[in-house]
Amino acid sequence: MIDAEDRALFSSDHHAFRDTVRRFLDRTIAPNLDAHEAAGLVERSAWEQAGAAGLLCPQVPQAYGGPGLDFAFNAIVAEEISYLGSAVGFTLQSDIVADYLVHYATEEQKAEHLPGMVAGTTISAIAMTEPGAGSDLQALKTIARRDGNGWTLSGTKTYITNGQSADLVIVAARTTEEGGAKGLSLFLVEAGDEGFSRGRNLDKIGLHANDTSELFFDEVRLPANRLLGLENGGFAMLMQQLPQERLSIAVQCQASAQRAFDEAVKFTRERKAFGKRVIDFQNSRFTLADLKTRLQVGWAHLDWAIARHIAGRLTPAEASAAKLWHSEMQWDSCDAALQLHGGAGYMNEYPIARLWRDARVARIYGGTSEIMKELIGHSIA
User: Fold this and answer.
1) pTM for this model (two decimals)
2) Domain that includes residue 220, residue range
3) Could you say which of 37, 80, 112, 245 is catalytic?
4) What CA–CA distance (Å, rounded) separates 156 from 141?
5) Which one of 7, 82, 131, 326 has the fewest beta carbons within 10 angstroms of its own beta carbon?
6) C-alpha 243: how far from its chain's center?
C-alpha cells in the first residue's frame, strides 16, 4: 500500500478521496485483473462504475458535470491504479483527453462531451501516433481538407490507447500542405462517423488489459464544429498539454516501482535458500536498500513536480525530466525485483511478472527516453 499520510502535498480531502479510490479498485478492478488481461480490455460497466464513484476527470469544472478539483486528485487515481497493477485506461481519459476539451473546446463541445466522460458513459482516446510518426509529431501525415463548411479527414493512426472502446477520439491531422510544426489541427471524431473504423486489438508485450488499436479514417466527413481549438493551432495545443501527460506517466511509474519493491520484500522475507531467508543474504539487502533509496528520492521529486504543476510552474523540460527519471527507475526496480524472485518471477501467477511486462513501454510512450533527453538538452543549450 502507498504510504501517503505524511506527504505534505495532500490534504484530508485528498486522503478521503484516496480511500474511496482504494475501495472502488478493491471491489471492481482487483477481482477482475486476470479477466481483463484475457479479454484485452476493461468492460464498459467498470467505466460507468468508476464515473459513479467520482474517479474520472476530477479536474472537470462543475458546469460540465465534474467536481472541479486539482491535479493531485488525478495523481491519486493514477497512483492507486498503477500500484494495483491494472492497465485500465482511466488515466488516459482523465489526465490527457479531458484537458484538451477543458482548455480548447467550445461551450457546445464541452457540454456535449465532458459530462459523459466524467460519468464513464463516454470513453475517449487521443490519436497522434502514426505508422511513420511516433515521438516526432511534426511528421504526421493524416490530413484534413476543407469540404464545404466542414472537413474531410483521411489517414491512419496506430498504438492508440482505448482505441477499441473509444466513443470519442481527438485526432491530430495536417490542415495545410506545409510540413513541420505548422498546419496541424485537432478534430473530434465520434464512433459512429462514416468512414471511421478500427483495426484489431493489438497484441502487446504488456498492458494486456488496455485495448490498443489501429484507427482508420477513410474520407471521414466532419462538420465545422468538430474542429477542436484553432485551425492550424494543433501543434501548440499538443505542446501545451504534453507536460501533464508526461507527469501522469511519471506518477504511474513511481507507484508501479513501489509495488515492485513491496513484492520483492514480501517474497524475500518468505522464501528460503540454503537454510535462511533470501532477504538475509547481503546481495538481497543491498539490492533492496538501493531500491528503497531511489523510491524515497522518487516520491519527494514526484510531489515537488505535482505541486509545481498545480501552481502552473512545471516547465516542459521539467516534465520531460520527470518522465525520463521515473520511467527508467521503474524499469530498474521491476527488473531487480523480478530477479530477487528467481524463477518464480518468470511465472505469471506472481504479480511481479505483470509489473515487469507492463513497465517496459513506459520508456517509449509519451515520448521515448531518448526524446526526453533531447528535449531536456535543448532547454540547456
Assistant:
1) 0.96
2) 125-231
3) 245
4) 8
5) 131
6) 12
